[in-house]
Amino acid sequence: MLNYIKTAFFNPWNLLLIAGGMGLAVYSGYPEFSIPLVIGAEATYIGLLVSTPKFRNYVNAQAAQQKRSRLNRDNRLTLDRIMDELPRNSLKRYRRLKKRCRKLAAITSKMKMPNDFNLGTTDRLHTRGLDRLLWVFLKLLFARHTLDEFQKEVSEERMIEELDAVEKQLQEISGDSSVESDKIRRTLLDNRATLQERKENYAQAKRDFLFINLELDRVENKIKSISEMSVSRRDPEFIFGQIDTVANSMQETERTMNDLQFISGLGDLEDDIPRLSDFKKQRQFEDR
């Protein structure tokens, strides 16, 4: 409601009318009567305007457009970052999948329009499924790269050795109740808790790494299967249906990706997918 009122009030034409009305009220000779009338008229006008469905739809459309613009900008920056930081082997893996997706889109388009190789509006809607697959695939690759770097920097064996050493020290002072031993015990217990937390985090990172690798393989195999199926089925609607089914199955993967944002550093990416399956949109990255 507040957004509707602000939009109505700060409309340039409304502000001009307010200024004009106030000016006339001051020069009328009876401002003590005229100004409240102007304020009352303005309040009535705002109330009537914000209750109009057409005006509300306009405000909602403007807010949605601003949100889309912000998401496009944020995801564009995220895409640039991913492409800049991914290692070469991960980029090659992404390009192979993207090439399959482009071929798949081209095949289905030719099935529907043999003499027209340009995707129409309906096909553009269908290829959003391919865009989602590629977008999640890229984020998975980036999370995998980040987890791989993390595992290289952390030694599980070293943590286990440190835990064993702490346990040994605790056993050595287990029968000593002196003040000094109590201080040492508190320090050792705190260090043990920290090491156990680090060990649990490392174990979770290993599970996440396994999940990501399995998801990457699953997406690749799904696209390969659909590509092979498209040759024999020759049914574009069936093929697009298969693509959409796989894309929808990625929702759980995306939720997991949001849980992993503290690792990947991508932040909470909302559902506004870059157009990755378009050849011209990503050509600048092909020669890296």
Describe this structure in words.
Helix content is 82%, strand content 0%. It has 288 residues and is mainly alpha-helical. It folds into 2 domains: 2-51; 59-285, no CATH class. Helix 5 (88-112) packs parallel to helix 8 and helix 7 (156-172) runs antiparallel to helix 8 (179-233). The longest helix is centred in the C-terminal third of the chain and has 55 residues, at 179-233. It is flat and about 95 Å long. Mean pLDDT is 76; it is low at 114-123 and 279-288.
Structural descriptors:
288 residues; disordered C terminus; 2 domains; 10 helices; flat; mainly alpha
Describe the secondary structure blueprint for this structure:
Elements: H1 2-9, H2 12-27, H3 31-50, H4 53-85, H5 88-112, H6 121-153, H7 156-172, H8 179-233, H9 236-259, H10 261-264
Helix pairs in contact: 1-3, 2-3, 5-6, 5-8, 5-9, 6-8, 6-9, 7-8, 8-9
